Fold this protein.
Amino acid sequence: MDLKGKTALITGSSRGIGFAIAKAFAEKGANIVINDIKIPDEAIEEIKALGVDCIGVVADISDFEQAESLVKAAKDKFGTVDVVVNNAGITRDGLLLRMKEKDFDDVIRINLKGTFNVIKHASKIMLKQRRGAIINLSSVVGLSGNIGQLNYSASKAGVLGITKTAARELGSRGITCNAIAPGFIKTAMTDVLSDEVKANMLAGIPLGRQGLPEDVAKVAVFFAENDYITGQVLNCDGGMVMQ
Ligand code: NAP
């Protein structure tokens, strides 16, 4: 898909990987819908400075109705919804024996159900357009598992199931659906980890550095631009997990 003049909606995109993805799509000429729980004005201004239009829509994507309003706001403003990046996500880490039920439920509700909610509403518009690219943020731990992340790993493995099934169901109408599995990327989500955990993770990365949000954003643009790739998972992890 030529992204110039198209509409890209990115969830959880006021910062981190989502914001880098929003900027990368704006640099390709797409109009941007930033979604988050809070959206600073500067985020919208920074996107607009790239020469495209941008709106911010505050919505909790884990809520079915709020996800519907988010997609509607994008369509009302720009007329189409061409790219959706399901990026919003949280961690609530802890070992299985200590993990609280709420920590399991919250992670599944936001990471997995939130992805369903947005795809459910956006795909209706894409089906009518007969065009669309859906990109879901999974994680390498959805492939490999990770000690202390049973809830998060389950949610990200579930995102892969959503991705492959949506790719099969929507493909005949020209809609692609792919997943990115980032490894250890430098954002607020990983800044909270202890130095010891960070050092251990770095030791397992053949390319020897932490990834940047921009590394992941390049993969999102690649998937959106290529109309003949669907149902795929691409790791962006410096070689951390090899399949
Ligand atoms: P981040 O810096 O924490 O940003 C995530 C954003 O999503 C935050 O602004 C957050 O808002 C927002 N959000 C959370 N719940 C939401 C909801 N219900 N509705 C709307 N927005 C919501 O995280 P990140 O590191 O950029 O991660 C982005 C995605 O990549 C996530 O899906 C994550 O699981 C995945 N990922 C990240 C890494 C990594 O190493 N960073 C690795 C693998 C996968 P609040 O600040 O208010 O919570």
Observations:
- The chain has one domain: 7-236.
- The chain has nine helices and seven strands.
